[in-house]
Amino acid sequence: MAAATVPGGRFGGSSWTWRPVACDALLARAFHSCTELGGRFYLVGGLLAGGATAPSSDTVVFDPAGAQAVRLGAQGSAPRSHHDAAPVGGRWLCIVGGWDGSRRLATVAALDTERGAWEEWKAAPGNCSPAGLSSHTCTRLSDRELWVAGREGGVRTQRRYGSIYALKLDPASRTYCYKEEGCRTVSRSGHCAALLQTPGPHPGHQLLLFGGCNSAEPEVAGQWSQGKIKEQPPVAPHLMEQLARLVSSGQGSRQGPRGLRHHSCSVVGPFAVLFGGESLTRARDTICNDLYIYDTRKSPSLWFHFPCADRGLKRVGHRTCLWNDQLYLLGGFGEDGRTASPQVCTLDLFI
Questions:
Q1: CA-based diameter of the chain, in Å?
Q2: How far apart are CA 315 and CA 341, in angstroms?
Q3: Strand ranges inside 45-162, DSSP E
């Protein structure tokens, strides 16, 4: 059920908002995963209300073309929150790590979307799994390899290491294999990751981590020369043009948001679009509704901040997904940190 457009932020002669396009109680959750596969969004697990100790085990499929949500009746799903997910082979939705209500996991579960069934994949020989993962990120480098960064550790120790893992996935054998990389990062939890092309005379790719700690600086978690990364992000020419026009109306800064976590991030061409989250630097009113755009078209890359006056747009633990030249916002807790949003919204830019 669509609703009226809500005013968002205004900057100079430009403005933006999240426009509701659907509303369904099945979608109300936070700290879930939301992955586009075959033109549909798969929402897996998460917390259905603030303060909940047991994560959900259900999977909801949202069709953005028809604005309809249905609960998937797949067997074998397990409760999971604070996990991450990635599509593999155009068929499997792989869920990596997360919290099951009693411990952090590093295992891989996969939804076979053709059969409509969940599978528990096995560790391959030589696997070196992390102690446990939650509030981490998984970034596709190819159709068979993910780059995993973020918190690991057991419940009692609450350890947070700056380790990075390459995770190889093999759908044919239903196996996975972690390998710890030699590089390390600042300890982060609830951050986001963006695989972006590097500007300048030596093109390539770099994986940047934003937030999840007190630092305002993005951190390079991996670099690859030209031709090494085969992953192609979704094409969104109209949205990319709109973002370019929006940042042209603002004043860029080398300084990014400090102490932001559990925000969303989507890559749109040379831009990383961050929204919402929780501020680690505030004692009160910690949930945010700000839009940040990281522009990598020139070196040095610049941040553009577009604040929002509408407190109804505050979100934490939400997700954004890019599809059909539009950026969608799904789920998340609102201003009170407890009530999950049932809305689906798209980012509207008025230039």
A1: 58
A2: 8
A3: 59-63, 68-71, 84-88, 92-99, 104-112, 117-120, 122-123, 137-140, 145-149
Neighbours of 54 (CB within 10 A): 13
The answer for residues whose C-beta is within 8 angstroms of residue 195's C-beta and 6 or more apart is: 139, 140, 141, 205, 206, 207, 229, 231, 233, 267
Residue 346: closest CA among 278, 297, 273? 273
Closest CA to 146 of 163, 165, 128: 165
Q: Pairing relation of β-strands 278-279 and 260-261?
A: antiparallel
Look at strands 291-295 and 271-275 and give their pairing: antiparallel
Residue 191 and residue 111: Cα distance in Å, rounded?
Answer: 25
Beta strand 319-323 pairing with 302-306: unpaired
| Percent of the chain whose pLDDT exceeds 90 | 79
Handedness of CA 220, 222, 228, 230 (dihedral sign): negative
| β pairing state of 40-44 and 33-37 | antiparallel
Q: Is 276 left (phi over 0), alpha (psi -120 to 50) or beta?
A: left
pLDDT of residue 272: 98
Residue 184 has pLDDT above 50, yes or no: yes
